[in-house]
Amino acid sequence: MIIEGWSHQSFMGLLDLIGNPPLILMATAHSFSFLTLPFNNPENPSYVPVLWTANTDSMTFWQRVTNTIQYLTYYWSFMQTIELEDQVRHAQLDKKYIKRSLRQIFEDDPRTSFMISCDSRITGYVRPVQPKIVEVGPLHLVKPKPLDQKLEAWLNGAAEGVIYFSLGSNMRGSSMGDFRRKAFLKAFARLPAYRVLWKWETDNVMEGQPENVLLRKWMPQQDVLAHPKVKLFMMQGGLQSLQEAYNYGVKVICIPMFGDQDLNCQRVNKIKTGIALEFNDLNEENIYQALKTVLENPVFSENMQYYSALSKDTPMSPMQKSMWWIEYVLRHEGVAHLHSGAADLSLVQYYLLDVIVFCMAILISAGIILYLTIRRILRGLLKISTAIRNENKLKKKIK
Known about the structure:
By secondary structure, this protein is an alpha/beta fold. The chain has three domains: about 1-135 and about 315-345, no CATH class; about 150-310, Rossmann fold; about 350-399. It is built from twelve helices and ten strands. Helix 4 (about 180-190) packs across helix 8 (about 285-295) and helix 6 (about 240-250) packs across helix 9 (about 300-310). The radius of gyration is 31 Å and the shape is extended.
């Protein structure tokens, strides 16, 4: 059974009804935090950023405090959601269809199940990963197709290159408001040698549209990014769009909106393959300066080419890797042999709290014994010294 790992835990209730086959969770975004906890994957919040934050793997003290609090909060919220889903199941289904609670399934079945994550070490941070969690991103890439002749000719006509601007499928560019729309147009007009291909979802005529800007309601994104004239991708920081940018070696300007986009954009900032801009800070000058910086500073081009080469240097394609592991799970009827002993430990044992207490008790006991021994020796020496002094005084008096 293969199901989406993000917010689709209700489907786990089907496992008991279909003979408890091996389960494969598929995380189409990052595989952080609560999704990997049942697999006993170490998710230390001191350096593993929570998905919904703008933290990196190098956090200040207060970032580590807030990251830890959010880590615990999201896990608690996630488990509460599973409990609420169970209440709905019990209210709507006959009891004969309910063998175990969703929480029991979620915590027990990862002993034999597997997880496929569409993340990669290019778009994510280095962290420990259990052998039954396999990263296969970018899984969605396809071979680019030729563009239509009109768009191809327009792209080829750009003197310096093309800026591709799309905020993805969830955020409509037409919903950004007049102030920011005009800010983008004015910034683009200040770069006449570049052409701007803008995904704009309405048929309305855009007031003040410069000659170097072309609007289209939909774009074959991978085909556009594969075009050699495309020099910069302005985007919202979605994982799949970022993976496409790295694959085709196109520098980025990120404008995060929601979900994992803050995390993704801060990764871009850290490795300098582009720049992240906050939506609330967007104005003509900020947009223009970001465009100029990323387009003209060679550091961004060099870094993007480096990470683009890394993203493609794999022993097999993401699709081949995914299929191999799915077939592996089928061949061996699960992955119980990859079960970590950490799952059988309590929190006290896992974090070695009992060992720490034991060692501390020995050290404290040794310290107390040493203190008492030294104290007794010193008292004995003091008594001898006092006796000698008294004897000397007595001898002086007799003389």
